[in-house]
Amino acid sequence: MTVIRVDKDVDNLTLTLVAEFDAPIERVWQLWADPRLLERWWGPPTYPATVEVHELAPGGEVSYVLTGPDGEGNRGWWRITAVDPPRSLAFVDGFADRDGTPRAGLPTTTIEVRLGEHEGGTRMEMRSTFASVEHMEQVVDMGGVEGLQRAVGQVDALLAG
Amino acid sequence: MVVDRLAAGANALTDLTDMDEGDEGDEGDEGVDGLFHALADATRRDIVRRCTHGELSVSRLAMAYPMSFAAVQKHVAVLERAGLVTKQRHGREQLVRTVPDAVHRARLALDQLETAWRERVDRMSGLLAPVPTP
Questions:
Q1: From B50, which residue of chain A is nearest by alpha-carbon distance?
Q2: Is A135 helix (H, G, I), strand (E, B) or coil?
Q3: How buried is residue B61: exposed, middle or buried, by Cβ count under 10 Å (0-12/13-18/19+)?
Q4: Cα A27 to Cα A73, A84, A111, B122, distances in angstroms
Q5: What confidence tens digit (pLDDT) does each residue in A68-97 have?
Q6: Measured between beta carbons, which residues in chain A are less than 8 angstroms from residue B42?
Q7: Site from B16, B103, B124 to mutate, A interface, most A CB atoms within 10 angstroms
Q8: Does the model's pTM come out above 0.90?
Q9: I need a surface site. Which of A7, A70, A108, B86 has the fewest CB within 10 A?
């Protein structure tokens, strides 16, 4: 089992996830640091990500598009606040306009990632802090949660049976 | 803790083991059971979320899920019993609205975000796995 712990803090609107990978820290870091790898996991299969700008340096920007089944693109950006390869990365994640400009006035998510060697593999801790409940709902809508469709299908099968 | 009280009958609640403390004040065991049961299902969580910002008819909701009108109606009935949504007849339509509650909404959104991150981690694992020999 890869995900070993999830904490959901309803009061502080924070999601913390700890996962372990059977791979060296450098390879796990590359999943964040290599835009071609990042776009293979950031968006769900129904909303694949295309990373257009990727500058992992303090103050640097990442910009990406999540393309939905209707062909419409949801644009997002990161602003890097701290980076220490291959151990830590902190950034602010937000929504962007069609041309990639960060949308003013919309809330943002603060994401902190830490990697560490653990029993021959790598442990990753990801902490995501949201600005408001409305904002969390927007992120869910924009990201297109893949598991929902799957779970819905299973429930349907149960109800039909 | 709520979790302890639920443990006995919580066979369907394996994914809700870390529900927060501090909820037990004004809800009896029955109310908490109904609430947890109602929220233990991804479709029901999604219905609650969709009906937060305004009323939606059951038939409109049924279009959003790959399941029958009757199945969606059953989900809405479970949510209604748990006090999470209200249902009002308007002509031929039944309109569903989420009872506003910031804690419920936060919990629902966090559950969905957890799902999204678990899937991301799955994909990360997939990329790290050794390339299978053809």
A1: A137
A2: helix
A3: buried
A4: 29, 15, 20, 15
A5: 888 888 899 999 999 999 999 999 999 888
A6: 147-148, 151-152, 155
A7: B124
A8: no
A9: A70
- Rounded Cα distance between A138 and A63, Å, is 18
Q: What is the dihedral of CA B30, B34, B37, B41, to 10 degrees?
A: -170
What ipTM score was computed for the predicted complex, to two decimals?
0.87
A147 and B116 within 8 Å at the Cβ level: the answer is yes
Fill in the amino acid letter for A68.
G
pLDDT in tens, A5-64: 999 988 788 999 999 999 999 999 999 999 999 999 998 888 899 999 999 999 999 999
Q: Which helix (H) or strand (E) holds B113?
A: helix B102-128
List A92's β-bridge partners, or say none: A79, A110
pLDDT beyond 80 at B88: yes
